[in-house]
Amino acid sequence: LAAAEARYEIKSAPAYDAEKVNVHLIPHTHDDVGWLKTLDQYYYGANNTIQFANVRAILDSVSAELQKRPERRFTYVEVAFFARWFTELEDDEQEVVRKLVKEKRLSFANGGWCMHDEATTHYVAMVDQTTLGHRFLEAEFGIKPRVGWQIDPFGHSSTQASLMTYEAGFDALFFGRIDYQDREKRQREKRCEGLWQASPSLGEDNTVFWGLTGSYHGNYGAPEGFDFDVRNPDVIPLMDDPRLHEYNIPERVDAFVEKALSQAAQTQGKHIMMTLGMDFHYEAAANVYSNLDRLIHYVNADGRVNAFYSTPEDYMLAKNAELREDAGVEYGTKTDDFFPYSDCEDCMWTGYFTSRPNLKKYERDMSSYLLAARQLEVFAGVGAMVSSIEEPKKPLRRLAEASAVAQHHDAVTGTSKQHVAFDYALRLSDGYGEAAKLAAEAVRQMQGLPEQVPVLECPLLNASVCAATARLADVGFDVHVYNPLAQNRTAVVQVPVPTPSFAVFDGSSGEAVPLQVLRNLKMPPSSTPGRQLPFTVCFQASNVPALSFRKYAFKRLDFAEVDVAEPVPVDAGDEANGGGEASFSIANDKVAVRFDAITGRLASVSRKGGAAVSLDQGLYYYTGFDSGIINLDLGDCDPATGNDCPEEYTSAVLDHQQRMLSKSPIELHQGVKEHRGDLSRSTQNSGAYIFRPQQPDQRPIAVATKPKVYVVRGDLVSEVIQCWTPWLNQTIRVYDGDASIYFEWTVGPIPVSDGVGKEIISRFDSSIESDGTFYTDSNGREFIRRVRDYRPTWDLQVYQPVAGNYYPLNVAAYVQDSQATLSLLTDRSQGV
């Protein structure tokens, strides 16, 4: 077999020809760390009734094929899989892999633990997961990737370019998905690659080279007709025996040259990159490499283009060399980002900005906990400081890996199957359990606690559940408040308790600390994983030093009456709202919040001594588009094959797909008759990925005409509780000394017994004249200017005026005019 393969003359980069188009062939696979199957199922090839995928077999197969010829190349990305595979190898097998890496036959792009999302991730978690993968590659192979490779995320952020590419030391960033209108314009204008000045702060000092994959067709696969994966039902192998009736080398070479020249006409320079791989390809790598060897041999014998094995790093070096050599290459410069992403008129990928909000919150909390636990690990000296080779033994490793996997573009996005989402949450929970042991030991050492004193946490405070305070209520307990920030901090701490009879004392001075006791509204048993406690004690932890603890003692009062701030119902004309006034308010020393007593809704806000800004806030829903083909969404139903479609609807989906394929790109995307003009002919439902109202310009529907309203007033906390429906409540709260207004909503389960899907939104209507302009953060770093129905780099044709104006919000957004600014801050990623 080796002798037969050697008959073909193949080569690898940098075998360039300055007079021809140089085609860099990039064998690669894209291996999701969870999506339709869990990470473990993908690795071992389990649960193949859902999807055939076996990562261990892919890496075994590729490793064997790379050893056969030194010119062959392969690019891998997801270190979560690779690290597991590598550590399972025998010592001699590991040495073979190290040799492949050293000789750059096996290369790494990105090199993170996963390929993280760019819309719903915080930059701290992006850095953490990338660092985890890079530390493994450095420890085992002494290498660091040089190229960003974000081929599958559904849109691309400026932070990915500025921080995770330029400042991470990468020399280029490649990705597959951008808006189809943007992509088609770039194809016409030869701008499918370019320069990106992504940081508004750093400007041209922070510039990276970027390019599209997938031969500029919006994906990361092989050109049509050149996917040689063994599971491709339409594969066209190179049949080079002239005695065969189906000898096809001339046709195959002509087709390849045509595609290469067509792609070269859509960018600058003499170099193009063809990505050869898709999701979980190369399980039978011999079939692919056998065809690629033949392809390179016969294409180069033809002589019209120059083809060879390559890697993203080699391609990046070739493009940079062209720029240095002043070869007549001039790239345009981009300064905004690539959000939102759409791949057809009805396909705005803005639903995942919010999908599975609880998982988004849990991921954010665990990322923050990991950061605090790392601080405690260092300060207390627990968890031995070990080398990077031994890092998997560290007590925080399990949470670090779980948090890293959760950044994957089908994890934090909320776009996986439900059993996979459960697996992501379980991994985070298991990792938290291990990290909590380290944190408890650190608290014990730093606070000088005796061995017999238990150190406990309350991870379910959001549900007013705390087994520790319930257990220790009769004897009292201490609360140790840790401040992980780099500056002193003052905040109200809330502790659920079974009885209101407590006093709180400062652990240092022994002085009594002012407190307020709230009665908790009873939550449905199904939403409370444990015993919900009836009361919450609130106290202010004042001026807690940076990176330090402050202790507060809870002592049980057996005889004293304690005032409980009870929720008081409010109706128009009730004395509770001011003796019959049409409005009522809650306030502290910094801000006042006024409500309309008739509607029960927010009416205005004002800072003390400042003018009031009219502000209405309500909860609404859009009717999710329903094509009549139920339970369909990307990831559930493949319109090209009918796989995973309900049997009774498969025929309709396939018919629609054929109609789409029969149209040219211009006919498909410029004509409105097929989609917007005739909604009955579009099967794209609203779902986890895509947000699509039933009508493109639908107005949101109020969840209720008027909520039941309760008011709680106190010295530390005042709040208005709005009970809109049995499945939707909201609390609007102010804390003493804090100029912010807090909105906390509880939604679900959303009723669908009426057959109508509902996309829930919280809408703020203010008197600010923003002129359709607002600002959103980029992964928690810099702000990006957004304008309704507008894109900075092309003339937008608006087909989805609602869904197309949603953008990712990670931590903050704001609108402003010359008089006021309204800022929104969130505790998880959402769409805005």
Question: Could you write a compact summary of the structure shown?
Answer:
26% of the residues lie in helices and 22% in strands. It is of the alpha+beta class and 832 residues long.
What does this protein look like?
The protein has 832 residues and is an alpha+beta fold. It is 26% helix and 22% strand. Strands 19, 20, 21, 22, 23 and 28 form a six-stranded antiparallel β-sheet that branches. It has a five-stranded mixed β-sheet with strand order 4-5-7-6-10, sandwiched between helices. Helix 12 (357-380) packs parallel to helix 14. The chain is globular. 42% of the residues are buried.
**Total strand segments:** 34
Largest sheet: 6 strands, antiparallel
Helical region count? Answer: 17
Uncertain runs are 630-635, 664-680
- Mind telling me the C-alpha Rg? 29 Å
Features:
832 residues; alpha+beta; six-stranded antiparallel sheet; five-stranded mixed sheet; 17 helices; 22% strand; globular
Secondary structure layout:
Layout: H1 2-6, E1 22-27, H2 39-44, H3 55-66, E2 74-76, H4 79-88, H5 91-102, E3 106-108, H6 123-141, E4 147-150, H7 158-166, E5 172-175, H8 180-189, E6 193-197, E7 207-212, H9 249-264, E8 271-276, H10 285-302, E9 306-309, H11 312-324, E10 333-334, H12 357-380, H13 397-406, H14 418-447, H15 467-472, E11 477-483, E12 489-497, E13 502-506, E14 515-519, E15 535-544, E16 548-556, E17 564-565, E18 568-570, E19 583-587, E20 591-596, E21 602-607, E22 612-623, H16 650-661, H17 665-670, E23 701-702, E24 708-712, E25 717-725, E26 728-735, E27 742-747, E28 758-766, E29 773-777, E30 783-787, E31 808-809, E32 812-816, E33 821-825, E34 830-831
Parallel strand pairs: 1-8, 1-9, 2-3, 4-5, 5-7, 6-10, 14-17
Antiparallel strand pairs: 6-7, 11-16, 12-15, 13-16, 14-15, 18-24, 19-20, 20-21, 21-22, 22-23, 22-28, 24-25, 25-26, 26-27, 29-30, 29-32, 31-34, 32-33
Helix pairs in contact: 6-13, 9-10, 12-13, 12-14, 13-14
